[in-house]
Input
Amino acid sequence: MKRSVGQADGGVGGNAGSQPGPKVAVVLGTGGIKAMAGLALFEFLEEQKISIDLLVGCSGGALASATIGMGRSPAEIREQGLNKLTKSLFTRLNYRALLGIFSSKLGVFDKTSGVIDPTRWMGALKEYFGDKRLEDLRPRTIIQTTDVSTGAGVVLTKGPLAEAVYASCAFFPAFPPINIDGRYLGDGIYSAPVPVTEAIKRNMDVIIALDFKEKVTTEPQGFFSCFYRHIDNTMRTLTRTQVFLSIEMHHHEIVLIDVDFDHSINPWDVHELPLIVEAGRVAIEANRERILAAVRGFRPRVVAESGVVRAAEPAATPASSAREIPVEPGGETGPGTAAARPSGAGGPRQTVLLRPDASGAEDGDSR
Output
């Protein structure tokens, strides 16, 4: 099988060579099958020999990240598609739960319920991922979910891959959440639609995040269409707030890329895959210089014996010109400490205070 994107092979990212490159994270946000537009990014990074150290996925982005992490190349996914993803997976209704929405005398609907019977969807995920586990994926892959009881974000780092992906994609109340270690976990869209902060918490230097947007002008029709449009608009506000805060928390570079679609695409619209990947290619091409500048402009931080962090300068620059940022003696940059981040290409660096986890997410492990 072709080598997975992101495994260190002497590329720019990772720790290859005598001069460590930046630790690179790719974050794929929510978007159903539209998240497969990320294939264009993986192809670009592979072409540029930029290795990936961390994949972070939410909802549709979790499915795309897990597919890459399990060892399938973008070319293989393009060729084989997602043939198991059909409309029939999403059409079997749970009538008892559906009637329970209107009256408790007619049926039952609670936090464990969903309008759609999840049996086929879960079965397809188990067939697709087999017995693979989240902790075995390369690059390292983590998945954003939401605890439907508390609304808190829960990040899965290990456990059965099919269950983790299901949880992240379980768009409540359409699909029921899944019980993982005593918590009912559902779609990550409700807590962190584009979970950039999870990459920051894991000390990534360069974070490339894709946000998938439908710029449609028609009015939604039907309950679920109206509901999803409302959720989508609400989550856009949450995404902006979290990303802006992430920029202030981060010590190097976040490249946020919008991938736009001019019409609605359903999760089962596998025939749209070529169009989806092309939309990703257009977005990546428009932002290629930003990506390359972020990766190639990286300068590793140096912790001196005096307990200060210095932003390393190019070899031709005298060491005395490096900027010094005080931190707690013997400590590394992290929540509550000072860190440097660039304020612009070629400009002075500024010191910002890293805040504790902005998304409120907890680390969680599936069984």
Remarks:
- The chain has a mean pLDDT of 80.
- The longest strand covers residues 206-214.
